Amino acid sequence: MAVARVATGRGVARRRSLVGWGFVGPFLAVFALVFLAPIGYAIYLSLFRNRLIGGNSFVGLDNYTQALQDSQFWSALGRVALFLAVQVPIMLFLALLVALAIDSGRLYGKSFFRVTIFLPYAVPAVVATLMWGFMYGTRFGLIGNINDALGVTLPDPLSPDLVLASIGNIVTWEFAGYNMLIFYSALRVVPVSLYEAAEIDGAGQFRIIRAIKLPAIRGALVIATIFSVIGSFQLFNEPSILQDIAPNAITTYFTPNLYAYSLSFSGQQYNYSAAVAIVMAVVTMVIAYVVQLRGMRREGQTGIRVERRRGRPRPPALLGRSRR
Amino acid sequence: MTTSVRAPLAQPGAAKAGLTVRARARRGRRRSLTLTILTGIVLVYSLIPLVWLVVNSTKTQAGLFDSFGLWFDGDFALFGNIADTLTYDDGIFLRWLGNTLLYVVLGAGGATFLAVLGGYGLAKFDFPGKRAVFAVVIGAVAVPGTALAVPTFLMFSRLGLTNTPWSVVIPSLVTPFGLYLMWTFAAEAIPDELIEAARVDGAGEFGTFFRICLPLLAPGIVTVLLFSMVATWNNYFLPLIMLKNPDWYPLTVGLNSWNEQAGTAGGEPVFNLIITGSLLTILPLLAAFLLLQRYWRSGLAAGSVKQ
Question: What is its main location (chain A) (predicted)?
Fold first, then answer.
């Protein structure tokens, strides 16, 4: 046993035993109650239907076939897909540019930039949406101010045509800084020696970004993309709160989640709502999985990879040390 | 890392020369005004809504409609607004603040405790079923939280938990992201030899964890605590569906109920209170992030090492 431990060179403390369950058990118990049980219950609910005559009866996959033929569901799904295709790239690109700018070391007051641009993340979605919603407003909002001051009529951001873009702006404002911080943290891990070698070879800044920095943060990019995909499909808070400010622009089936919510709490159609929620969960997981697979495959193709530091523990004081 | 360690051993002189070059390059790095201004545009974008909020919390309701949004009105009504916000409807705002604090202390505190314990267990022990734990937890991260909300509501309503603080606290206790972060952090920050040494000295597993390992995990713990505090403080969807009684609302749902009230016929519009209340809601979190930067920045950096 001792010989084997020395030979593998790791896991001295990792005796195979049930002690680990003592640490992980409490988390898993609550996890089972609030994650696994609701998933199981949702699947169970989705297989039944409550009829006026005959009560609650098993209907197999009827709720699912109904969802797949439901034009309101498809319009909601299409809306978040469009949101995903436009808002997520803009937000991540913005976050990446700022992270690269801060990491370049060429900014005056870079820690001020980093902290301030991150701050909107700490603002609740409710407050963010109320603030932007009021600012969009023509009554005492900035749009109204500009219209009065310049004597023009700007398009109303809360009109049905523009409201999705306006929501995209709110979400970008909330999360660009958070993603920037993820990218920036990943950039700091790149060893300085790589940059030095590249500079000696005469590589310019853009070449360094393309050949070293971008490949180095590919993992962070994949994670940020997955979180953004999940966030887009879950879109609920912003449209739901804007509904009070712009009641005509946002329907009860504006996003799939808003639709599931309205089905449950206004329509009492719990079974059908559960089916819609499960279809959305499956769609989300499939897309997140595809993003992950693509990200992994590309990672294998790039030439330079950040070395893994697995099994080389360092004191925590060093973990946060700035590279420069 | 390997090369930079090996090189000085082979050629000490070259390494010393390399160091001077690096030091010179660092000192000689030019700052760019153009880049600062370009990034400044994003900075202004991030700040404008917050500036708007501060400016407009100083206005009376009439002033909101009469004056330019990004500048102050004639009379400075901030303190009046704060007093009105805190006393409106028999001081319901303070009740909501108390509820939010309750949910944050129990929810985020409990979530952090479970994540630290679990992350440490996953990082430092081998046990039967560990792979399955990994697969299930990582898979769960991809399940939309809001997809779970409706079935959780129905389950909790069967258990008689809806409309009580427990319906908000219990689901907040689990943070898969926090578990993942503590896992990677514990793997880095605690040397296996340390645990082994404690074992040789006869310390129990949990004693070792609480007395020796917990202090080493501090930056990671602050990070997870801060992020689960934000998640609980800002939680809207879960309390919205779980709670019917305004006496149990957290600040987020309460503020939105004031906004709904303004939209309904016959409801009293209290826009100045919504704006001042919003400002009071975000100040504690902004302060926490600014004051604790040193900790969460290093915690996040460590979490990103192994992506």
Answer: membrane
Question: Min CA distance, B90 vs chain A (Å)?
Answer: 22
pTM of the predicted protein model: 0.83
Q: Give the separation between CA A163 and CA A246, rounded to whole angstroms.
A: 9
Q: Is the dihedral of CA B72, B74, B78, B84 positive or negative?
A: negative
B126 in Cβ contact with A11 (< 8 Å): yes
Q: pLDDT grade, residue B276 (50/70/90)? A: very high
Domain co-membership, A205 together with A273:
yes
* Bridge-based pairing state of the strands A55-58 and A48-51: antiparallel
Q: Domain range for residue A139? A: 66-305
Secondary structure letter of residue B126 according to DSSP: B
pLDDT band at B23 (very low <50, low <70, confident <90, very high): very low
Q: How many domains does chain A have?
A: 2
Please name the residues in contact with B209: beta carbons below 8 A apart, sequence gap of 6 or more. Answer: A23, B117, B120
Between CA B219 and CA B213 the distance in angstroms is 12
Residue B82 distance to chain A (closest CA, Å): 17
Query: With the C-alpha atoms ordered A307, A313, A314, A315, is the resulting torsion angle positive or negative?
Result: positive
CB contact under 8 A, B126 and A14: yes
Q: Are the beta carbons of A108 and B36 separated by less than 8 Å?
A: yes
**Alpha-carbon gap: B193 to the closest alpha carbon of chain A (Å):** 7
Question: B90-304, superfamily in CATH?
Answer: MetI-like (1.10.3720.10)
Q: Judge whether A87 lies within some domain.
A: yes
The residue type of B60 is T
pLDDT of the residue at A7: 36
Best interface-test mutation with A: which of B236, B241, B291 has the largest number of A CBs within 10 A? B236
In this predicted complex, what is the ipTM? 0.82
Q: Is the pLDDT of residue B62 over 60?
A: yes
